[in-house]
UniProtKB/TrEMBL annotation:
Belongs to the cytochrome b5 family. MAPR subfamily. This is Cytochrome b5 heme-binding domain-containing protein. Coiled coil: none annotated. One of its GO terms (cellular component) is endomembrane system. PANTHER family: CALCUTTA CUP-RELATED, MEMBRANE-ASSOCIATED PROGESTERONE RECEPTOR COMPONENT-RELATED. Residues 57-158 form the Cytochrome b5 heme-binding domain. InterPro entries: Cyt_B5-like_heme/steroid-bd (IPR001199), Cyt_B5-like_heme/steroid_sf (IPR036400), MAPR/NEUFC/NENF-like (IPR050577).
Length: 187
């Protein structure tokens, strides 16, 4: 007859054996997996937002999550959906981060037009663009962030469209960046 302690010993031994084999074959105790389920920030977020599971931020609140405070996660928004990109802090933090201009901002228009470096492109305002094409590009980027195991959606913008309704349409982009077809190159 097995006691409770014996069951724990067997399970512990199996976990140890799994970790040893994993280290032997992949130099990682988790078989090479480095996604959100091993990230303590993911569980902290899940705990803090339980039972709702999502947060709602205004544009002004989103700006606080730009990477300047190491104690806060880094969020980006793409057409009202907010994603945690803290796993790639070096890419999204100024001054050296290649994508630091997106941190703490709504980036839908910039991603749809590939116009990097124009501040008026950091908005969800799609006026003046081919809306079908722009929404297709936005959907590709949202799918990219939702498909990566190290990023996850944390919530939505409360006032995404209200901010720009009274503003002028952003000027056309004259020098869009050539983005490769394989969006997966963004780490």
């Amino acid at each position: 007859m097995f006691s409770v302690i014996d069951v724990f010993r067997i399970l512990g031994g199996l976990l140890l054996l799994n970790s040893v084999f994993s280290w032997w074959f992949t130099s990682s105790t988790t078989w090479g997996y480095e996604g959100r389920y091993l990230d303590t920030q993911y569980y902290k977020f899940q705990y803090n937002t339980f039972p709702k599971g999502q947060i709602e931020l205004t544009i002004d609140e989103l700006m606080l999550y730009n990477g300047s405070d190491p104690g806060l996660p880094i969020y980006i928004a793409i057409y009202h959906k907010i994603y945690d990109v803290s796993a790639s802090r070096s890419l999204y933090t100024a001054p050296l981060g290649r994508y630091s201009m997106m941190a703490g901002k709504e980036s839908a228009r910039m991603l749809a037009t590939a116009c990097i470096g124009k501040n008026d492109e950091l908005t969800s305002d799609l006026r003046g663009l081919d809306e079908e094409y722009a929404m297709g590009e936005i959907f590709k980027w949202q799918s990219y962030y939702e498909g990566k195991s190290k990023y996850w959606q944390v919530g939505y913008l409360k006032d995404g469209d209200e901010v720009w309704k009274d503003k002028e349409i952003p000027s056309p982009c004259t020098k869009p960046l050539k983005i490769p077809q394989n969006v997966g190159s963004l780490q």
